[in-house]
Design goal:
The complex is a heterodimer of chains A (about 120) and B (about 400). With about 120 residues, chain A is an alpha+beta fold. Chain A has three helices and six strands; from the N terminus they run βααββββαβ. Chain A has a single domain, classed as Dimeric alpha+beta barrel (Alpha-Beta Plaits, 2-Layer Sandwich). Chain A has a four-stranded antiparallel sheet with strand order 2-5-1-6. The longest helix of chain A is centred in the first third of the chain and has 21 residues. Chain A is globular, with a radius of gyration of 16 Å. The two termini of chain A are about 15 Å apart. Chain B contains 20 helices and no strands. Chain B folds into three domains: about 100 residues; about 130 residues, no CATH class; about 90 residues, Serine Threonine Protein Phosphatase 5, Tetratricopeptide repeat, CATH 1.25.40.10. Chain B is an all-alpha fold and about 400 residues long. The chains are: A alpha+beta (about 120), B mainly alpha (about 400). Chains A and B meet through α3 of A and loops of B.
């Protein structure tokens, strides 16, 4: 199974954090990323730009509609994701719980769709 | 075997056969349910004519396997390609007399998957009742005051999530077993309480919920032995269930614990419950289920209402409030203290918790305060609280009780 881990957090809080806190967080991510890479379960992953750079795309009646921002307003914004290989949901959740952001916001675990013939 | 006997067999055997089929089908609940259903339908046609096979379970399992193979072959030709998690070869093997323990393992897998924390609690309860207890979707909907269509959707969504997100069909490993078992026990207790609470009009379904909760509790006791919390929960359920027949009178009116005919309490259940309480407290110490079971045991052991050891019950509620605080526990503690130290003391304790948000909208709080006021001869305060309780209470037997009290006060 392949899973993708989406990291949610409050952008404003992260932005207003002290330099030390930001560096600490950065270090935590570095450790986690190295660990995941070492275990061979990391398929990819990147931090994302601020939610203010997000665009929601909709297609209605064959026309592409673009909206600024994420699909729904919530207190927390998507801040990054990990794509992981796990044997089932339990293992995926276990890995997600180790993502540093799980302490400050939440991680959405979403199965990656299998498409036939690809 | 006639239709009634096959229906009984369905109640007893379908969950074990379903549990096995789900494993063989790589966790596909929906497909497993369909083929098990069809196997029983085939039995209804074949057995009354051709006679009951010697090993009914093996026959049903074999028939379900054949149906599954048919469906998967058809599906793979016309629809999506074969799912890699379905082992066709394993399905083709004719089942012999398998050891009972193998079925036990599959049942455990089914229990833990239905009560998986990645599913919403209401979905866990619905799925448990549907697959482990064999209740129909309509029955479950009635038990939870939900539109049958909504309940059907809830079940489809849960089964879909299990398959798509790949919730594993396994018994959790040692590291998480205790935590996951707790989650299972809370589903079992929720099922029991739903059956025990006099909230719905459907008496038959409610009895069924209590019976099934106890059955799953016993099953867990035998499949994962030596768990004090399981023993405590089964004890708690048995000791409450023992009073079931005396809780309502012939007209369906609520009968208070102190007025119940104790000679009609189920002695077998009480004996079984008492033995478990002792065992659970010795092994597991003061756990929430253990304390509640001990309280139920003190009620069960009192030959007459006036023999009840309220002092001990008040102490147990105080301990419960310490390890698992909740407004309802505080309310029960106040009532126990009132029985032991007098109604004034009970009212004092109730005054302290009157502002708890969970209680200020709960009829039990006002009913308890009204009872204490009535005992102290404070008629107008009692009247006011009984009326308030009546506004908040939905269950018919409890409403009639409150109305009766109001009338008595004039």
């Amino acid at each position: 199974m392949q899973y993708i881990l989406l990291i949610y957090g409050n952008e404003a809080e992260a932005k207003n954090a002290t330099k030390d806190d930001q560096m600490k967080m950065f270090g935590e991510y570095k450790v986690f990323t190295e660990e995941l890479k070492g275990s061979g379960k990391m398929l990819g992953g990147d931090a994302l730009e601020s939610v203010t750079t997000a665009t929601t795309v909709r297609v209605k009646g064959g026309k592409t509609l673009r909206t600024d921002g994420p699909f729904a307003e919530t207190r927390e914004q998507l801040g990054g994701f990990y794509a992981i290989e796990a044997k089932d949901l339990d293992e995926a959740v276990m890995i997600a719980a180790k993502v540093p952001g799980a302490k400050y916001g939440c991680i959405e675990v979403r199965p990656v769709m299998k498409i036939n013939g690809m | 075997m006639d239709h009634a006997a096959i229906a009984l067999l369905y109640r007893q055997e379908s969950s074990a056969i379903l549990a096995r089929m789900i494993r063989a089908l790589g966790g596909d609940f929906a497909l497993a349910e369909e083929v098990v259903q069809e196997a029983f339908e085939a039995a209804l046609v074949d057995w009354p004519l051709g006679g009951t096979p010697q090993n009914a379970r093996a026959w049903l399992l074999g028939t379900a396997r054949h149906k599954a193979i048919d469906r998967i072959r058809r599906r793979s030709r016309f629809e999506a390609p074969l799912d890699d998690s379905v082992d066709l070869a394993a399905l083709s093997v004719e089942p012999g007399d398998e050891p009972a323990s193998a079925f036990g393992d599959d049942l455990l897998r089914l229990i833990f998957t239905c009560c998986h924390p990645a599913l919403a609690l209401e979905a866990q309860v619905a799925l448990t009742l549907r697959t482990l207890c064999g209740l129909t979707t309509d029955e479950i909907a009635r038990a939870f005051f939900v539109d049958p269509k909504t309940m059907a959707q809830r079940l489809v969504r849960a089964k879909n999530k299990i398959r798509v997100a790949k919730i594993p069909y396994v018994v959790p490993g040692r590291a998480e077993l205790a935590e996951r078992l707790d989650a299972v026990l809370s589903v079992v207790y929720l099922v029991f309480n739903e059956g025990y609470a006099a909230t719905s009009g459907d008496e038959l379904v409610r009895r069924e919920l209590c019976r099934e909760a106890i059955r799953i509790g016993r099953l867990l006791e035998s499949l994962i032995p030596d768990r004090a919390e399981t023993t405590a929960l089964v004890a708690l359920m048995l000791l409450h269930d023992a009073r079931q027949a005396t809780r309502l009178d012939a007209e369906g009116n609520l009968v208070l614990l102190e007025d119940q005919d104790r000679s009609r309490w189920d002695r077998t259940e009480i004996e079984e419950g008492l033995a478990r309480v002792t065992h659970a407290l010795r092994r597991g110490g003061a756990t929430p289920y253990g304390i509640q079971a001990a309280i139920a045991a003190l009620h069960a052991e009192a030959p007459r209402a006036e023999d009840t050891d309220w002092r001990q019950i008040a102490l147990l509620y105080a301990e419960l409030a310490r390890i698992a605080p909740s407004p309802v526990v505080l309310l029960n503690r106040a009532v126990a203290v009132a029985m032991h130290e007098g109604a004034e003391r009970g009212l004092e304790l109730l005054a302290r918790i009157a502002d708890e948000p969970d209680l200020s909208g709960h009829h039990l709080f006002y009913a308890a305060r009204a009872d204490l006021a009535r005992r102290l001869g404070q008629a107008s305060a009692a009247r006011r609280d009984y009326a308030r309780a009546l506004e908040l209470c939905r269950a018919a037997p409890e409403r009639r009780y409150l109305e009766r009290r109001l009338q008595e006060l004039g």
